[in-house]
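User: Structure with adenosine-5'-diphosphate, tokens only please.
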Amino acid sequence: MEVLKIKSDFVSSVSHEFKTPLTSIKALMERLVDGKVRDQGKMDQYFSIIAQDTDKLTRLVNNLLDFSKIEEGKKEYVFSDTDIVRIATEQVQSFKREQLMNGPDIRLEIAGEIPTLRADADALSRALANLLSNALKFTPPGKAIRVGIGSDGGNVLLEVEDEGIGIHPDELGRVFEKFFQGRNALDQSVKGTGLGLTLVKHIVEAHGGKILVESRLGRGSKFSMVFPIKS
Ligand code: ADP
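Assistant:
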């Protein structure tokens, strides 16, 4: 019975995640096609929302594909020398572009020289995108999100810290479980699939690293990915 419930909840969450951006794209496209929007500024705004919705859908599909590969034990990572600063810069820029005007502020802070990592660049981008998308979901406008990169010689640290609503202390140990969605998400009707952090953990561990979380309710959360530098 429990498995059936998880399955039907999951199907309903995934459908909802698809439906919201699709509905928005459809409505905006209809207005553009009807020629009702003439003002260039308004058109640009519509195009940017459509781009943002398509990015969301792409992330969702990639997450689902990655998840099924992981479940089947078929997920493979391709390692090469990777510049983590470039990855973080690209992701931060892309999320900033996606941001509506009044969203939280996203800052990138790089502490000193960061060595290259033997890593799967695509997978690292996706892990960071999942953390950033969570931070954005749970952080109100006017607050900040910080992406920090640092190195202590033995490890490279990539962290995403937000000033959002935080996670209930009794749920902190469960956020990496597959399909898990917290009370904070359900309370605020913030939908999701409960897979984002499961994937982040898998990616980090495939690189021999670990993921840590700290959070205070009403104050914010910090997710830290620690990658060992292998020579
Ligand atoms: P989803 O893919 O649905 O976002 P995740 O696995 O990424 O699921 O996250 C699981 C749960 O962890 C979320 O439902 C939420 O309760 C909590 N969570 C994750 N990131 C944050 C954050 N930055 N702030 C507050 N809660 C978070």
